[in-house]
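Q: I'm writing up a methods section and want to include an example of the input and output format. Could you take the sequence below and give the corresponding predicted structure tokens, formatted cleanly so I can copy it straight into the document?
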Amino acid sequence: MHSFDERRRMAMLCTLLGATLAGNAYAQSSVTLYGSLDAGVAYVNNRDGGRQAAMLQGIAQPDRFGFTGTEALGDGWSSVFRLESGFATNTGALSRPGVLFSRQAYVGLSSTHYGTLTLGEQSSLNYDWVAPMTNNFQAGNLLASHPGNLDGLVETTSAQEANAIKYRSPAFHGLSLGLLYGLGGVAGNFSNGRIAGAALNYSNGALSIAGAYVNEHNRALGAMLGDTTAGLGLATFQGQNALSYVADKVENASVGARYDWGRVRLHAVYSYVKLVSGAFSDTYRSYDTGVNWMTTPANTVSAGIDEATFIGRHYLTAMLGDVYSLSKATQVYLHVVAQQATGTANARAAIFAVGASGTPRQVVFVAGIHHLF
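A: Here is the clean output for your methods example:
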């Protein structure tokens, strides 16, 4: 029978051995904490009929923090995961009340030869590959997003795809393929909540081209249509209350291109969305084009224009902005965005992240600071 001291020494030895083995087992693993914080002070000439001074958040990039990790499995394989939470810097509130990881929550396997397969809450394919060509992404200006974001090219919490299986192939001569399938999970109704999509991306030196198509069933789009900071200010749509609107089917197609010419970058995007509910069917079309000019290694000036058409209304948006990098992690910015709505007597301008105007015109000035970690 071992004495107390012998048992204690054996326990210590086992602990040290376990720690050593654990260190070897996780030697090729990594976990990274990252995030983005952004806050700006804005002046709006008309928000629902009145002038407004407000603090906005997530203008340069969405406010978020997250964890991403990999573990090398050998022979070019690795396991991957991501947990990402959205929040508002100006209030500290979660982007989606009661949901901690509202932006990304997935786990998967990746191979240098066969691509990456992930399962969980994930961003859509059109956001992954087409959104980087848009004015709002290139200018670092959320306010320059397409009105209402019905094409899902802004990664708000409403643009995430739940219960999704996503595959991304390795690049072959600059060409990559993406596939997405979302499980509705409704017993007895296989199509309810189902999502299916595909995307292609081509990158070769200064040129990048991407296209995506996503088909969704039973998609809630109330926040994009109703009188919210993201919405178009509609009261009703297709016979439903706009704020609680759910589409039976959404077809979303988009294509974009980007070209670098020295210190100048040219970019353009076109999107088409079809919304179906019962006997109703409406389309949303938008295009934008813009230019970035890196005046110095630390300073970039951006300009762009966007036109969207929807239910007889036309939204014309123009933007001009300047972003100055104080360091690799910190930038300050100044943007102005103007929009005019025409086509119907009750058309109201609705700059994204601000909310609908009381008139067909709206102008926003915003200055802020953005920090990455």
